[in-house]
# Entry
Amino acid sequence: MTELSVFSRRAVLGLGAAAFTAATAPRVWAQAAAPAPPSGPFSLPKRAYEPNALEPHIDAATMDIHYNRHHAAYVAALNNAAKDNGVIAKASVGELLADLNQLPENLRTLVRNNGGGHANHTMFWEVMGPGAGGAPTGEVAAAITRDLGGFDKFKADFEAAGLRVFGSGWVFVTVDKDGKLALLGKPNQDSPIMEKQMVLFGNDVWEHAYYLKYQNRRADYLKGWWNVVNWAKVNERYAAAKAGKLAI
Ligand code: MN
# Structure
């Protein structure tokens, strides 16, 4: 499998947390910036917007901690494991998740949790953005109408699926090679990639994704999230999936 170029390891080396601690970055970002994760084959993807860019729907402090602490921790755990396990160092995160059972048994849980966390969050940052939201566009709009009952029904079903995830997890829209969409909730950092499915987009319903702003009101977070979905990026992922070029 080939990773999307924007998230290829070479492309993002050195562009992790450090890219967001420039003098021009908002103060809250610089204050809470964590050390870069240990070097290794896996790295944080460069995010195309500042941590305050999704205000007021997702607050800057949450974005900062989520990226610099939570996502960075998954990357660090993978890199630490890669030091002693060449099988992890040599594969992409998509390849690792798709063939979890090919890994030595003692590595499977580590890769499932941290590889899943890395893949899920890399997708998550990509499909959001400032000045986004509104109704879906392009082929994705047509696919939502065809496969998921139209945008209004889909939104209600997606939010309900997000609320049904007990504890921590995700709600995903998967896409097959023919472009057919499906809705799928997952616990923890489990990824549909583990079942050889491709992720079109999804929302993180771990409390760390919303608690500072929404506290226990996950339903309000799920409703607000539509305002930051970048449908242009979702359409890019849709085209990549149908072309067999979507690895995460
Ligand atoms: Mn998260």
Observations:
- DSSP finds eleven helices and three strands in the chain.
- The radius of gyration is 17 Å.
- The chain has a mean pLDDT of 89.
